[in-house]
Amino acid sequence: MRAWQVPALGEPAEVLALTEVPEPVATAGRVVVRALATPANFPDVLMCRGHYQVRPPLPFTPGIEVCGEVVAVGDGVDGVAVGERVLGTTALPHGGFAELAAMDGGSTFPAPDSLEDAQAASLHIAYQTGWFGLHRRAGLRAGETLLVHAAAGGVGSAAVQLGRAAGARVVAVVGGPHKAQVARRLGADVVVDRHTEDVVEVVRSVTGGRGADVVFDPVGGEAYRSATRCVAFEGRIVVVGFAGGEIQSAALNHALVKNYAVLGLHWGLYAAREPEAVRDVHAELVRLADAGALAPLVSERLGLEDVAAGVQRLADGHTVGRVVYVADPAARRPSADPERPDPDPRRPLR
Question: Where does the Enoyl reductase (ER) domain start and stop, copy by copy (predicted)?
């Protein structure tokens, strides 16, 4: 079969190679799927560079989540049948940027019929991360103000939609007018272009000086520092990642005198330690998707040959929403205008 492989570490466009490899085997506890759609995630970029906490032996196929059709089921896997359409995390080194991928049986979930392949593939990691960050870690409540950094990105766009579904007022921070339009279409109540506006001043203004009750930060660096200046009394800053490239230091004396909390989120620990909680959240995400409250923002659908270039665009910060490899050319429907993803994610909630 054909698959993208990482034989050496470096920038995705430089090291990814499309080649013929043996098909994965459904060993005990594993499922093999025909990859229908695989989103690019920032951990895929970091693994290509050798900077991620998970370092598969070389060579490996990236693509850490997938929507696929089950073609083989290994011993000890219950509730998964051949021919079923599923989604979930892949079992590296057999990632989703290939014709066939391997999945752990315990991390394989039914794909919702309400979402087409590219959107279904994008419902898992970003939305699980958003849900656990906003609800499990930060305890977001209806009526609170949620500040989301990188709101037009994959994880940020999920947090915007989940914040709306929870009844929060969402302030979205983006970089540039193009991404600002995307955030508005996602349903953000207030959009801040950090290139032309002061995030702290806008947040203070729209909250009457109170600040944001919850901050969702997948960027780090200056984004985190600005959050500490506009977080509310007893507010919560959820540290999700460091896509900006700088791992900041937290001034705990500042957290003490302003009475806010800094909360770390590593969703993978929930998948490892509390798989039933992850399964329950999946059911809730499917319910919200079926109700029209969630619609993953897919801005680019790629053929297999285009994967390396797409992952590099993500690495360079030149994407909005999700960039997804899709196996079926008829399902790609490339959007010439990523500001108008399909379907409309701002339709009324039910």
Answer: 11-325
